[in-house]
Structures
1.
Amino acid sequence: MHQLFSQVLGQRDLSRAGDLFSLEDADIEDCLSQALDQIKAISCSPDYLTNDNDQAVVEICITRITTAIRETGSIERHSTALVGLWESCLEHNLTPQGENTEDTPHAKIASDITSCILQNYSCPSVMVLAVPVAVRFLQRGNRELSRNMSSYLSLAAIAKADLLAEHTEAITISVLGGNHMLLRVLPSVYPKQPDTIHHHLGNLTAMMPQLESTEQQHLIRLIQMVAEQHPLMLSPQVPTLVGYLGNQSLTEALLGALVDVSQASPSSLVSFLSPLRILGQQCPAFLAHVAKIHGAVGIISETHAHSSLVYLVSLLGSMEHSFHHTLLLEVRALTDRYPSLLGGCGKDIYRMSNSFTAIARLLGRRLEEKSTSHCRVDEAFQSDGGGGAPEQQLQVKIQAFEEKLGDTVEDEEEEAAGEDSPAPQRRYSLSQTVREERREMRFNRSKSLALHAVRSRSINSDEGEDGEGVELSTDSAFSNTLPNQHSENHEVSPAERKLTDGSLVGKGEWAEPDRLYIHLRDNMEMIGDFCKVMVQQIPIPEQCVIEDSSRGGAAKLSFSCPLKGHYCLYAKSCFNLTSRQPHLWIHIMLLHLQSKSSVPLSTRDECVQKLGSLWEKTQLKGAHSFSMAMTQQTTPHKKDLDNLQIQLEEVRFFDLFGYSEEEGGWLCFMCNNPEKATVVNQEGQPLIEGKLKEKQVRWKFIKRWKTRYFTLAGNQLLFRRGKSKDELDDIPIELSKVQSVKVVAKKRRDRGLPRAFEIFTDSKTYVLKAQDEKHAEEWLQCINVAVAQAKERENRETTTYL
């Protein structure tokens, strides 16, 4: 062991402990494991809890050792000794007692070591030793330690889920005990330990209302995985899940899970069809999910099938065309399973009309006349003797179809053309039917695809082939539908115009509904009202760059002053902020863009595509797409916005910017207060001066403060060795060299605002304390403004020189 380490640890020499930081990391790297073993012996001694000197020595030595391990990259070499000391803390009390909320001595040791070990979550040899110990800390009642462990274990779950899988039970119990941060671990370990999580599934789903929105998304992801892999396990939770459908941010994901459950256990959804129908009526975007659940329940029995068919057929004539394919597949599955529901004429009904309204009417009548053994289509078909050319057979069917509907059947496209269109015409010939069908496809592509799929399945059934599961590509649907199609000049109908508006995206023959456009269109007023209030609380970044995308991404945000006055703090530079909430910032930027636009934005807009590109860089496996995520909830929750404000306060944004109602934006301090700019920029005129206490020792547990007199003027923060203005100056702090100014966090038991703050330069850190919170705020704002001004001046000079 190095001689100085031997002296400090052997003699518990606090006076020499600080000298350890003067040693080179390479000079002590070989003896770090020995030092850790000796620290373990000291911390386990009977008098350690009452010996302040030993505790101070241990804390200083641990800080020096962990620093050396990080700098030399020797964690694998010393991991055994480091984890051994860490684990020994579990043998002692870690929970604060009584009113004293300060960490116990062994909790402090564990806390100091935690980050050094667990920040190496991607190193298997270290994690093999560390994870079992980390999981034990979760159960020891120290909230701060548990929170830190959870944060690192969440990262470990991304990199090495296998190491956590065997601890699934302990992790799940910790989650149920209130450690919600660990929810993000459960989807990672579920494939390895599904039975363990199945055992607690009821309690996990029941805790949804207690969670914040981000935590809910982790639980939703777990529920989706269970629904995909073991849907029967969720059937007992169906009542609970249906109860959560009222939460807009959860509705779509939960409906998707319920669809999976309905396929495996349709009986579990029988009692909830009525609320699902109400949901579909209120939110038509979810009708496809509701239809699939009705289709699954209908398979149970003919009675259930009849009830489901009545509902599905009622939708067929009223829903948007984009849902028709899904509806017809569900209807077809039920009528194939129970042919007697339509008297055996289902296939003919599907073939006879390219009008979904007509199909819906005919199906509805057949369901009402269920007792009739043969439909009139069958009679007409039988009168032909089952023979004749295919054209003649189709002609007979068309005539029977017209008899059935009478004058009530109208062509959908003639209805869409408006009052100036010619009167509705019946289809008396095959050639006319062909022309109508061709027009229908031209005017409404989505309807043609659905119809073609149904017809193909009907034909396959006639030929003795199984049509289930047939999927047609767009190209095949349109290239094989009708022979001898010719290109015709025609006026653009309302149906065709609908294809060209912002609600559809895609290229060529086919287009899909633009989910984002529809969402923004339907919520423009709400978004506008929200943004009027939001922009006065949260600034909109001028630029956003995504970094560290492998871990979910961090948003590097830049803010500048739009006014750029003579004394502007950010005319040539920007205020930069790094946030671990990129998704929230992207959502806010999208809403702000929409609030500035008089028309709904769509995924085709360049500004939206740029935000989508940023979103893709933040995506982890299993995350929602940009359009899906942006439509989960119309506006962010208040709690999320409050968190953003807190982060902006922590980086002192509001010292430097303020919202100007006159300008309608966030201006820098100088542009917002032009009357103060003259005073601030007077040569030699102090911006603020007075007494502050400076900390003399860097370690936070040693409280040695000295009062000095400080003056903030120009580009410098000057301070004197004594309490008077007239004493000799020390070397001043050059403000242009200041990297950041931060508030020193207070201990949890302290009340009020912090009084201490740190000034970081490239060579030194200063810890200062004002006499009270009010003076601390004044000093912090003045220093931040002066630092920004010094850097802006430097940027302008550099630009001028260049």
Note: The two ends are 55 Å apart (CA to CA).
2.
Amino acid sequence: MDDDGRYRDSRSDFIRGAKDIAKVAKKQVGKKVGRGMDKMTDEYTRRSYKRFEEEDDDDDYAGMPSNDGGYYRNDSRANDDEGHSDSTEGHDEDDEIYEGEYQGIPRADSGKAGGMDGVAAVEAQQFRDLSAFEGERRKDQEELAQQYETILQECGHGKFQWTLYFVLGLALMADGVEIFVVGFVLPSAEKDMCLSEPNKGMLGLIVYLGMMVGAFVWGGLADRIGRRQTLLISLSINSVFAFFSSFVQGYVSFLFCRLASGVGIGGSIPIVFSYYSEFLAQEKRGEHLSWLCMFWMIGGIYASAMAWAIIPHYGWSFQMGSAYQFHSWRVFVLVCAFPSVAAISALTTMPESPRFYLENGKHDEAWMILKQVHDTNWRAKGQPEKVFTVTHIKAPKTAEDEFIEIQTATGTPVQRWAVRSLRICKLVLRNVASLLSAELRFATLFMALIWFCMAFSYYGLSVWFPDMIKHLQHEEYESRLKTFHGERVENFQFNFSLENQIHREGEYIRDKFVGIEMKSVKFEDSLFEDCLFEDIRSTDTMFENCTIRSTIFYNTDLWKEKFIDCRMENNTFEHNKHGCHLDTTDENDVLVYLVSFLGSLAVLPGNIISALFVEKIGRVRIIGGSMLISAGCSFFLLLSFSQSAIIALQCLFCGVSAAAWNGIEVVTVELYPASKRATAFGVLNALCKLAAVLGSSIFASFVGITKAIPILLSFTALVCGGLVALRLPDTRQKILQ
């Protein structure tokens, strides 16, 4: 009997172990097959939701009075399902394994498998399970989209959405400010930090490069770790490095801080629009996303006004010796960080997107946030007694196995963090690759072309306009150039400033240049003998092919680099000034601030028109029409030959193109499902910043050479983008997927 008992115990242990092994094997095979699921997850995007509006008696939808499926409290079946979560995996009887299976004895119903061997049978079963799971998941996602829209209708539009509107508006405003900061400080920074032309060009482009990287990274992370959390991280990075950039002295450190600041703010646009759209019902979405775009214009106005008010006040500065200098343009950089800091403070009071929670199977968290939205809105409308009737929200089934493995992995906290970070990176890249899947390929390619064409023209002309105005000012300045030839001056003290002059073949004997400023002065083939230069401040001043003998330079900024091919004999340099110095008398920069202010203000009519008519005319017509009209405005630049004409056409171009930008951002939100929305927006916005880099570089290179090439490039890009935009699908009546 003892032998029989041991035999039965051993046999039971063997069978139990075999069952466990088979379950693990089945699970691993399912994982391998499941990697192909992502290619199918968005197939539902091509299906219409119209049937959900027409079939009021459909048993799958709980929001209807006759058959509510347990979503609302007045449903008799709701109580039965309160403890059930659709995203929780229960016990599956099919996982049970027949004892004789591991003894080579087939199941009684295995005859249907024909001549398939054991492995083929298991794989066939896995594919059947996969197909059933995928079909159920698509159905769940369709039900979620329809039900989520119904819940937003019940929550209403009110205080909560308007509060979120202003909070996210600050983040969008910070993005608008970031675009203008470097352009406004560059005229002062180039003199303060002695920047060469290549360094100036790199400083102008570095922000776009940072924003390009930031848009891609933060957009992808927003779909994996949450909209609110990602936006807080990105804005924090922007604020910290914007603050540091106002204090650093060297060019390389300033360049790095502006790059990091750009990386941080790059996440603003992709996340803000995705975040806000998921709190808006269908009939409010286009209009209020267009109103949100107005904060980008407010950011430009804020930056222009602050530059105009702060930078010309050169008295707002201090210095510690000659090594550390803090001029007014650094005060401006510091002030420009305020919108980002304010956005961070306000965003901490707002919740995560409930749609993001539902996409990740977090039913309870999403329900609490939607109830908060409902109660906030109806309480503000004077109806606090109105009850939130939703008790259950359909959450799509998600494969959590790999995340559970990450969370329970062995190793140090650093190792677990590294594994989790690597896994998130892989998921982000997989999400990016899915944008070119069969369902989304044409939408992505069309939107990429439209974003690129619009950004190439808009940012290219945004750089070209002020550069062209500066070029016209420079031409006018050179027209007043004074030339002195063969003059001989002895025993004379120059106590007046020299500006915009050329002195050729002159002789200066025992002369004194004391306490004066030299601006745009050039000495050629001249002789200086026994002269004194004391307390001299110079800008664009040089000595070329001159002979300088027995001359003293005391407390000047005339360095050896300013003496080109000169013969220096027995000269003395004492207490030379180190570093570059600002030109406090240049009024041309103030005109640039004014032009940028007017250009930002001109966006207001375009914003208002697009917000009022985006639902009536449609997104597609607004984008296409605005881009084609903008192309016409750019073509008229060929006829502009004065500063006033360029300023007027700049305002017209900015006002018209604003409507196209608003429509593009609304359509981008509506074309992509929630699980890929921020990723798609980030990829397209990164492409936008790449186009901005190309447009700015190409257009700036033709300033002073020809106007025709930049204008024709802009015209061609806008026409192509406008024609492609007219082929986009109309998304006005589309429920967010």
Note: The longest helix spans residues 118-155.
3.
Amino acid sequence: MASKSFPLLFLFFSIFLYSFPHQIHTFSTDQTVQTFIIRVDSRSKPSIFPTQYHWYASEFADSPRILHVYDTVFHGFSASLTQDQASTIRRHPSVLAIFEDRRRELHTTRSPQFLGLRNQRGLWYDSDYGSDVIIGVLDTGIWPERRSFSDTNLGPVPSRWKGACEAGEKFSAGNCNRKLIGARFFTKGHDASMNSGGPFGMNNETLEYRSPRDSDGHGTHTASTAAGMYVFEANMSGYAPGIAKGVAPKARLAVYKVCWKNSGCFDSDILSAFDTAVKDGVDVISISIGGSDGVAAPYYLDPIAIGAYGAVSRGIFVSSSGGNGGPDLMTVTNVAPWLTTVGAGTIDRNFPAVIILGDGQKLSGVSLYSGAPLNGKMYSLVYPGKSGILSASVCMENSLDPKLVKGKIVICDRGNSPRVAKGLVVKKAGGVGMILANGMNAGEGLVGDAHILPACAIGVTEGDLVKKYVSSTSNPTATIDFQGTLLGIKPAPIVASFSGRGFNGLDPQILKPDLIAPGVNILAAWTDAIGPTGLESDTRRTEFNILSGTSMACPHVSGAAALLKSAHPDWSPAAIRSAMMTTANIFDNRKQPMTDEANGKVLSPYGFGAGHINLDKAMDPGLIYDITNEDYVNFLCAVGYVPNTIQVITKAPANCPKKKPLAENLNYPSITALFSTATVGASSKNFIRTVTNVGHANSIYVVKAEAPKGVTVTVKPTKLVFTETVKKQSYIVTVTADSKNLVLDDSSAVFGSLSWTDGGNLHEVRSTIVVSLLTQSPL
């Protein structure tokens, strides 16, 4: 990984945002109508108005302009306004904040066993497979007829459920059952953007359903990953055969369609879905959505962070994808400390394909191609990128000369267009096959695709070799051998090259991602509206598809949270996350440190957080780090938010303590010590943590610290004693860093850990320690 620098400007800008929140707005300069989200102090409503809606319509905007009214996780509304109207509303004394509606993107079996789940014992058994826990999935909808959503052998719908099954295009109330207990769709923000001539184009109604029905496939895949029922003889065109099941097979599903094919997901609709899901009575929310630019917005301008806080403050666990911006540093998204942020790792299954060159070289890659094989026949091999034309090298639409590629296998560089779309371009130009070569950014990271022609993806090293062969041979030839499904792959897990990495660009005191889960080549249910490539020209239909992304990792954690919630109904969202983090694996199946798929090197916690989720241990973590709503408010005070800005997030008025809290004392299961690069010699920081005993009542834990070179970690006390009456204990960690002896990695950080153990290998409660040198801010 290339070395990165973190300039003064970044930290200055972050603190400027926190210190002067009402002076920063994301408004454009034109006067076209667009959607805005307005946060209102609900206490200001005059008693003459019977509802918030009546007040908003009378005071702020004509009723036809109001899109959504929010009253649960957020108080306010969204409306179609001009810039002048928005500016007028912003000056109203009851308005706390106003921001533009933004477009978000989707972050796009064997994996339950890889998480440590077993049928006859452990968390599946103790939680009754997540029975009666309700998972709300905010995504592209669902294809309800899939076997993964059967309600066979499920009991009645939980009596606390208050949701609905909304009818719409090709979807009726009858499509719900005791498994899929709720389905809604949210279009107002999307429609307002489309109708106002927004930058995203008019949605093609022939390819989309104005209903909870899924025309994209992403939502069906994530929902079945989290809570799909057992399905026998599952596979994707012969790949990954076996029994498919979600992480929490008996959990109930409620889907909230907020994302639309070809036009994305809009903040105003996402916030409305959060509001509705909380009122409906979900226990877990799974959201595999985030910004497309890899930049984390301040919490008070981020409806995912705002909606998630409203849910978490009511005891609802929220799992979110960490983004697909890796392997670059500081690309993790959805970093609010109340969110559980999930990165992606591999499992011990792969779909190998071998490229055989005319000179006898064999290059390893992956593919999910399931059509007629090449049967060893050698074809001419061509690399259009030799011309130096970028569009040809990446096989963009209309970039290939049929005279050059007809009847040949074509080498296409990755980038600028979807991987499977490149295969379509090659096929249209008359090519018989494709080799998809990674560039330096993707490195050696590979994901399988159900290509429409014989095709194989290879890493940057193999890509360089095949291009060198083409350049050095007058008549280069090749063939591709597709080898099906291979189990028992080592090493696994490794961190996916695309998985978003730390450090946390908003608040580096909080380590993100929190952990990783399976997110590469995951088999799950699929829509019947489109083929496995997602291309309109792909006429194939399959019950299951294999996808990769942090979108696929997130629902694994959502399902895991459902299991833990079922086994421990009294646990808070923070307790559930703590149990996952402090028991996570940091080693692969060779018992070696986890590595980076991009380059094969040992990876730091900036890539995997606390580690890879291990549910066999998370069920019984021994100790947990709990966090209250007040703790989160104090954290916001600590990072510089003023009470009015905090109220945008928390809904309730906030009072910051007279003595400013320290952000690093949020009771998080990891510890990040930030030191200035200006510090010379040794410098120390103290951290306070409190653990709650959820194991044996009478227990004694002793501490073990592992510190990197140049760092000293001391803990007081070194022993924690718990009894029937003493369930909580606090301790102080002092981290001392000697800048002259630190051996920093590319991220200007070093890493260690502390663990509390109770003897006999019963429990080891591990917390990652990050020691980072950052440029000092002038504020």
Note: The first strand starts at residue 34 and ends at 40.
